[in-house]
């Protein structure tokens, strides 16, 4: 009974490159949330997705960031043309449809050099 | 918009003693959920305890209990018989009931446990 799997665990990108973060939810969970944790800060909501649909992207920066949760495969958070300020830990959480049983992944730490 | 405030950036407790971490929140909703999460150095976010707003009884999980004061919008976490393994960042979080269940987070309290 695997939990939420996030990969890679650590990602280093040079400024201007693309970062692609993957999240495989718990089997049977149809809701995925992405959060960002900047150094010395709490988590900030980014985006909420259900299969093939973006439900709430109010926390996503308007440019360079996108997310998807396809019918098959993991959820992807994509950051284009990364800048130093994108350096953070990115967490994914999933939950089933019927309750508030969130399960978190271990996060991806993105470092932009 | 909902907000969550943790006014204690750092706390410390002696092993085997009791410590209380504070959390207040602001919402106009009547139905919602409150959570305490623990984040050890491994970075894994671990659920400590959860409270449904419609329940008057305070949630309890072994050594962890909450004092939920709905009218005051207060949700404090009490850790009894503190252990070295309790040392971590503790985050208070809020979620509306309903379809969009995104979590709104406090800034966290760093708890040190002294032997």
Structure report:
The complex is a heterodimer of chains A (113) and B (115). Chain A is mostly beta strands and 113 residues long. Chain A is 0% helix and 50% strand. In chain A, the strands form 2 sheets. In chain A, strands 2, 4, 5, 6, 9, 10 and 11 form a 7-stranded mixed β-sheet that branches. In chain A, strands 1-3-8-7 form a 4-stranded antiparallel β-sheet, with no helix packed on it. Chain A starts with a strand and ends with a strand. Chain B has strands at residues 3-5, 10-14, 19-21, 24-26, 32-39, 46-52, 60-61, 64-69, 74-79, 88-96, 104-105, 109-114. In chain B, strands 2, 5, 6, 10, 11 and 12 form a 6-stranded mixed β-sheet that branches. A 4-stranded antiparallel β-sheet of chain B has the order 3-9-8-7, with no helix packed on it. A two-stranded antiparallel ribbon of chain B has the order 1-4. In chain B, a hairpin with a 6-residue loop joins strand 5 and strand 6. The model of chain B has no long low-confidence stretch (mean pLDDT 94). The chains are: A mainly beta (113), B mainly beta (115). Chains A and B meet through strand 4, strand 5 and strand 9 of A and strand 6, strand 10 and strand 11 of B.
Helix-strand sequence of chain A = EEEEEEEEEEE
Number of helices of chain A: 0
Task: Report the span from N to C terminus of chain A.
Answer: 36 Å
Proportion of beta-strand residues of chain B: over 45%
Strand content of chain A: over 45%
What oligomeric state is this?
A: heterodimer
Tell me about the biggest sheet of chain B? 6 strands, mixed
The largest contact between protein chains, plus residue counts on each side, is: A-B, 22 and 22 residues
Helix/sheet category of chain A: mainly beta
Measure the end-to-end span of chain B.
Answer: 41 Å
Order of helices and strands of chain B: EEEEEEEEEEEE
Runs of chain A with pLDDT <50, length 5+?
none
| Helix content class of chain B | under 10%
């Amino acid at each position: 009974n695997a939990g939420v799997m996030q990969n890679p665990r650590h990602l280093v990108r040079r400024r201007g490159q693309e970062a692609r973060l993957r999240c495989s939810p718990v089997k049977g969970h149809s809701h995925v949330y992405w959060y960002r944790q900047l150094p010395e800060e709490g988590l900030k909501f980014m985006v909420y997705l259900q299969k093939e649909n973006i439900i709430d992207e109010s926390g996503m920066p308007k440019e360079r960031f996108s997310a998807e949760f396809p019918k098959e495969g993991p959820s992807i958070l994509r950051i284009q043309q990364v800048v130093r300020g994108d350096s953070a830990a990115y967490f994914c959480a999933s939950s089933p449809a019927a309750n508030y049983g969130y399960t978190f992944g271990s996060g991806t730490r993105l470092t932009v050099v | 918009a909902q907000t969550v405030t943790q006014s204690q950036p750092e706390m410390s407790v002696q092993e085997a003693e009791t410590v209380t971490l504070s959390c207040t929140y602001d919402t106009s909703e009547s139905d919602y959920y409150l959570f305490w999460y623990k984040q050890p150095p491994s970075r894994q976010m671990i659920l400590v305890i959860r409270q449904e707003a419609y329940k008057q009884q305070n949630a309890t999980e072994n050594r962890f209990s909450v004092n939920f004061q709905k009218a005051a919008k207060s949700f404090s976490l009490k850790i009894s018989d503190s252990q070295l393994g309790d040392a971590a960042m503790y985050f208070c979080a809020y979620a509306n009931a309903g379809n969009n269940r995104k979590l709104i987070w406090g800034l966290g309290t760093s708890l040190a446990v002294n032997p």
